[in-house]
Amino acid sequence: MCNLPSAFISYTRSLFGEDLWQKYLASFNESTPVSIRLAKHTDISSLAHLPISGRIPWSAQGYYLYERPVFTLDPLLHAGAYYVQEASSQYLNEVLRIVTKNLDIQLAADFCASPGGKSLIIKDFLPSTATLISNEFVRKRAWILAENIEKSFLATLSTNSDSPKIIVTNNSTEEIAHSGNIFDLILCDVPCSGEGMFRKDHATMDEWNLDNVMKCAKLQREIVCNAWECLREGGVIVYSTCTFNRYEDEDNVQFIIDELGGEIIVEPRKFIPGRDLGEGQFMVAFRKKQPVSRSKAKYRLNTLPYVIEELTADTPRCNVSMDEALNFLRGQSITLPPDQPKGIVAVCYNNYILGTVKNIGNRANNHYPKEWRIKHL
Q1: By C-alpha distance, which of 310, 352, 361, 353 is closest to 334?
Q2: Which residues, listed in sequence order, are joined to residue 284 by a DSSP beta bridge?
Q3: CB 153 within 8 A of CB 163
Q4: Residue 230 and residue 232: Cα distance in Å, rounded?
Q5: How many CB atoms sit inside 10 A of residue 211's CB?
Q6: DSSP states along 137-170
Q7: DSSP 55
Q8: How far apart are CA 165 and CA 185, in angstroms?
Q9: What is the pLDDT of residue 231?
Q10: Pairwise CA distance, residues 146 & 135, whole Å
């Protein structure tokens, strides 16, 4: 059993009630659930090598695993065929299933998007004509986000499917609110005190205190207000945290209702380890009923460029073995079969594109981005 902060114990025990509190405590003695989410057109049969144990009830493409494999050694992860994503956070799939039924979406935003799992869920609910602004304020985390988004496009190309346009940006939410864009759908998966991650990341306990909780609640309201400002009338905001306390969850819901006029369209749901098979998560959706005023743009979006070589449906493809795939992902040169054309070739594993090489015959020069390469096998 880990050492939970005493103030957290006192508050949360009262919030949960004794029965749920004991279930939560018992979860610290259990293995942390491992789960993945498949890309939209990934066939589950292509992932037979993974120890899949069953479906996640609230996620159409989500699966639990019996144990955690060494994901780094699976080329299909690098190809974007699936994404390692905590099960409770995949509840966004169910929320979007409800809110997008009669919602015309051409421009959507994920305000606090890194590392990108929730943006990938949003992507699957958008028409191919739509655009998603996937934003992360912290520059280093924005590059991680961009990598995961770009790999998802490899999977889209591999399965010959359509996809909306995704632009990865590195802005504050205030800058997005005053960029001149008006959105139909916005996700605010806000920075929080992380109480729901205590079991998964014990280091978050050391950073927890009530002062930080209140600072988080204030920042969350600022982010939501920025989102509200650039949301169209009839548009939808999904608000989520990975924490338990009322200040960041229920009190902020009431703030959105009382101060912003938000109408709840998906009732709040709180996931709690011990009761739910996943980590902590809180999620709710609102509709905006007020008209939006389009103002002159004050800021521009800081767009991160894609780093992988441009691929098309006509780019020649070559399937390679597991060993060759891992060598490619490490950045090594590989040798393609003699029947492969000279020039740019897409390297594939089990028909999923990993990246490109320039085939010169006796060897193929590796064009896999250096920052993506596997450093240790």
Answers
A1: 361
A2: 239
A3: yes
A4: 6
A5: 8
A6: SSHHHHHHHHHHHHHHHHHHHHTT----EEEEE-
A7: E
A8: 15
A9: 98
A10: 9
- Amino acid at position 338, single letter: P
Q: Which among 188, 267, 179, 266 has a CA at the least distance from the CA of 227?
A: 188
**Phi, psi (deg, nearest 5) at residue 355:** 165, -160
pLDDT of residue 377: 63
CA distance 268 to 17: 18
8 Å CB contact between 196 and 275: no
What does DSSP assign to residue 112? T
CB within 8 Å of 63: residues ≥ 6 apart: 35, 36, 37, 38, 44, 52, 53, 54, 55, 56
Q: What is the reported pLDDT for 203?
A: 81
The DSSP call for residue 355 is: E
Letter for the amino acid at 229? Answer: E
Return the pLDDT at 363.
86
CA angle 205, 210, 213 (to 5 degrees): 80
**pLDDT in the model for residue 3:** 85
Q: State which amino acid sits at residue 45.
A: S
Instruction: Indicate the DSSP class of residue 270.
Output: E
What pLDDT, on a 0 to 100 scale, did the predictor assign at position 27? 95
Max Cα–Cα distance, the chain, nearest Å? 69
**Global pTM?**
0.96
Low-confidence ranges of the chain (pLDDT < 70): 1-2, 377
> What kind and span of H or E run contains 259?
helix 250-260
Question: CA angle, 125 as apex, 124 and 129 as ends, to 5°?
Answer: 90
CA 199/CA 196 separation, integer angstroms: 7
Helix, strand, or coil (residue 308): coil
CB atoms within 10 A of CB 109: 29
Under DSSP, is residue 115 helix (H, G, I), strand (E, B) or coil? coil
Kindly give, in sequence order, each residue whose CB lies less than 8 Å from that of residue 257, ignoring residues fewer than 6 positions away. 263, 264, 286
pLDDT for 1 equals: 52
Q: Which of 20, 14, 16, 27 is nearest to 278 (CA)?
A: 27
Q: Determine the Cα–Cα distance for residues 113 and 190; give it in Å rounded to an integer.
A: 9
Cα(18)–Cα(243) distance, integer angstroms: 19
Handedness of CA 337, 341, 347, 352 (dihedral sign): negative
